[in-house]
Amino acid sequence: MILSIYLYGQPVLRKQTEELTPSPELTTFIADMYETLTQAEGCGLAAPQVGKPWRLFIVDGTELAEDYPECEGFKKTFINPEIIEKCGEQEEIEGCLSVPNEYGYTKRPERVVCRALDRNGNTFEIEGTGLLARCLCHETDHLDGVMFTD
Question: Which residue, 26, 50, 78, 85, could crosslink 3 as a Cys pair with Cβ 3.0–4.6 Å?
Answer without folding.
Answer: 50
